[in-house]
Amino acid sequence: MEDAIVLRDLVVDRGRRRVLHGISCAVPRGVVAGLLGPSGSGKTTLMRAVVGVQTVGGGTVTVLGRPAGSTDLRRRVGYLTQAPSVYADLTVRENARYFAALHGRSRADADRAVADVGLSAAAGQLVGTLSGGQRSRASLACALVGEPELIVLDEPTVGQDPVLRADLWGRFHELAASGVTLLVSSHVMDEASRCDRLLLIREGRLIADDTPDAVRAAAGVSDLDEAFLRLIRASEAGSAVAAGAVGTGGEAS
Amino acid sequence: MNPRILAVTTGRILRQLRHDRRTVALLLVVPALLLTLVYYMYADQPAPPGGVSTFDRIALVMLGFFPFVIMFLVTSIAMLRERTNGTLERLLTTPLAKADLLFGYGIAFGLAGAVQATVASALAYWVFDLNTAGGSELVIMIAALNAVLAVALGLFCSAFARTEFQAVQFMPVVVAPQLLLCGLFVPRDEMAGWLQAVSDVLPLSYAVEALQEVGAHAEPTGTMWRDLTVVVGATVLALVLAAATLRRRSG
Asked: Which residues form the ABC transmembrane type-2 domain (chain B) (predicted)?
């Protein structure tokens, strides 16, 4: 089956600054792909390009076999922005039901999405009165409610308690098992080990694109944090050998 | 455009308004208080011989003006929030069409403006004995059209504001000149030629003329219908311009 996301030489400029320097990679269907990198590395810009809301300076972005941003993709792709984008003056349930209705889903689907993010007890509460973590879960519910084939989540687990975080990752893997593809960004390295595939970007360049095990093996350490550090050092030293050894990511830098 | 998505979007906007009880109360009470003020301001002023009383003349224009100014403000802020909270960007990644959102706002706040005009008109006619030759339903209809015009202008202007402070500043820019030149203070045909020319391109001038037609004639006149056509045309133009400011892709 065709890949869920294919990037070819993706270049994005913001103002006079180049944010993404020709990224190429592919994400197969039915996996949880982690997009890892420090703040300001271009994670959000890459996700926006995949969703089709980012003006692209060069290269191509193909999503579910179609150019990113195509009209029919709007019902097949779900997007969670980094800052929670829900209506503060509506309740959690009203938000979920509105986004459900936009995707032609029922009220029961909306209530299920609210339950899936652990907000059933707060469903009748105005979003404006929720804690930051709850608010971002309300936003997550609205991204999941349309049952999209590709879900792009920009730092969905920031500020969540560890138990909830584990639950959410469990839910992501359930979705992946059912054939849904997830692209999840994080700057917390301990979440990297939960992903089926990893994309590590730094300063707008792809440093690694492989499974967590392969990344560990390539760096020769068992700790992912340490593995990333070595890969970054290797790429900074301009060593094509180390980057090339981690698989397909080497060509991007 | 999709009727189902338009309906749920309109419902969502009205639901947001309903949760904000204080705004609803202000929407309904403030015009009534201002009308009361105008009533007592002119209570002891003699009516010009054979003419309409000053209260009748001013109150009639005010009934159309309240929904215009208030819905402009409410819409500018609501749309600015959609832009700054990221909900607009998110909406544009869903099957929602731009027209669903724009018409959703037009219908929701147009309804709110109609309710506001109905309450204010009830007070003006029943308590303060407002006299118009034409029917009050025409006054309310013109007020509702004014509300929709204001929504369209607000949707467009919100694109040029980055913050709520800036959005509020658009009120004097957009609303004040239209109020000054609409013919309430100085009849339009007594203004200097260049002022008349400016007045001619401002949509509120036509809405006010339509109200004055209702004030003076028992039956709807051709001038009134022509004026309302201009108001609707200006609304459509503002909506088209507003749609052009909604970009699915940005830098």
From this structure: 22-249
Q: For residue B247, what are the contacts with CB-CB under 8 A and spacing of at least 6? A: none
Q: Among partner residues B8, B12, B249, which is closest to A54 by beta-carbon distance?
A: B249
A1 lies in the same domain as A36: yes
| Structural domain includes residue B251 | no
**Chain B CB contacts of A146 below 8 Å:** 94
Query: What domain range includes position B99?
Result: 3-245
**Does the CB of A15 have a partner CB in chain B at under 8 Å?**
yes
Q: In 10 A of CB B43, how many CB atoms?
A: 11
C-beta of residue A75 within 8 angstroms of C-beta of residue A69: no
% of chain B beyond a pLDDT of 70:
100
pLDDT classification of A244: cutoffs 50, 70, 90: very low
Find chain B residues with C-beta within 8 A of A85's C-beta: 85-87, 89-90
Q: Which domain holds residue A204?
A: 1-73+150-156+181-231
Tens-digit pLDDT profile for residues B158-169:
999 999 899 999
User: Does residue B125 belong to any structural domain of this protein?
Assistant: yes
| ipTM for this prediction | 0.89
Cβ contact B96–A102 (<8 Å): yes
In one-letter notation, the amino acid at residue A153 is: L
A82 by Cβ neighbours in 10 Å (0-12 / 13-18 / 19+) ranks as middle
Minimal Cα–Cα distance from A223 to chain B, Å? Answer: 36
pLDDT band at A137 (very low <50, low <70, confident <90, very high): very high
Is B12's Cβ below 8 Å from some Cβ in A?
A: yes
Average pLDDT of the residues of chain B: 93
Does A250 have pLDDT greater than 70? no
Top residue of A87, A152, A153 to mutate, by most chain B CBs within 10 Å, is A87
The C-alpha atoms of residue B148 and residue A75 are separated, in whole angstroms, by 30
pLDDT of residue A7: 95
Q: How many domains in chain A?
A: 2
* Confidence at A238, pLDDT banded by 50, 70, 90: low
Looking at the complex, does the CB of residue B163 fall below 8 Å from at least one CB of chain A? no
Whole-Å CA distances, A157 to A79, A81, A164, A190, A223:
14, 12, 9, 12, 21
Q: Average pLDDT of A147-167?
A: 90
Asked, for residue A137, whether it belongs to a domain, the answer is yes
Would residue A114 count as lying in a domain?
yes
Same domain, yes or no: A131 and A185: no
